[in-house]
Amino acid sequence: MSVKYICRKCGICCHEVPGEFVKRIPIYPDEADTLIEIAKERQIDFKIIEDLVFPDIMNKKILVLTYKIVLDNENKGCPYYIEPQGCTVHRVKPLACQAYPLALKQVDAFNFEISIDPLCNFVIENYIELENLNIEKLKEIFEEEYPKAERFYQKNKKLMFKIRKLEVKKQIEIPRQISLEEFNKYLQNWEREEITVK
Ligand code: SF4
Ligand code: SF4
Question: Which of 25, 80, 115, 185 is disulfide-compatible with 69, CB 3.0–4.6 A?
């Protein structure tokens, strides 16, 4: 395997990609607070919306695990992306951005796995070599990004574990089946509670 990840610095990962995929840059509540603070200091328009949420039907609350960055209307990109330097919050950028083009793929309601995002230009260029990689090769090719993806994965796992623990202790109740209509009704009417881990 000769291929080694080198970022093309094309900025695609910070922008909406035309086509069927919707750009999603997930951020945890603590990361959202940091980015909001910086936006205030810099006086830039930075917005987030809820991303991964669970309805807690026992307490009538929406539990918020992650948010996502609202892309700028004009350039369809993250407000922190500025040409020509690219990301202007490099030192504090969210785990999802640090790990990219490695990402977390949701395999069921509570489980995720590390995967490669197909929208990255490096991935598109090397698709054949990157298809069906085992974990050792993945670590080799994405030498710097894999440890970050691992941290991202572990943080997500801790969050899911916290949710499951609250369920077992009967402090919350998350329905396993819910209609879209009910879910939308809950989203409109219930208070939010952020679920965080260190
Ligand atoms: S925080 Fe930086 S790396 Fe992440 S989407 Fe925004 S500009 Fe891109
Ligand atoms: S899309 Fe891939 S190659 Fe382009 S800037 Fe993002 S990570 Fe780098």
Answer: 25
Query: 57: which DSSP letter?
Result: T
> Domain locations in the chain?
12-194
Residue of the nearest CA to atom 8 in ligand 1? Answer: 14
| pLDDT tens digit sequence for 115-162 | 999 889 999 999 988 888 888 999 999 999 999 999 999 999 999 999
User: Which of 36, 88, 89 for mutating ligand 1's site (highest number of atoms within 8 Å of CB)?
Assistant: 89
Whether ligand 1 lies within 6 angstroms of the CB of 78 is answered as yes
Protein residue whose Cα sits closest to atom 2 of ligand 1: 87
Distance CA 8, CA 158 (A): 33
Instruction: Tell me which long-range contacts 134-142 makes (C-beta under 8 A, separation of at least 24).
Output: 137/1, 138/102, 138/114, 140/1, 140/4, 141/1, 141/3, 141/4, 141/5, 142/5, 142/101, 142/102, 142/116
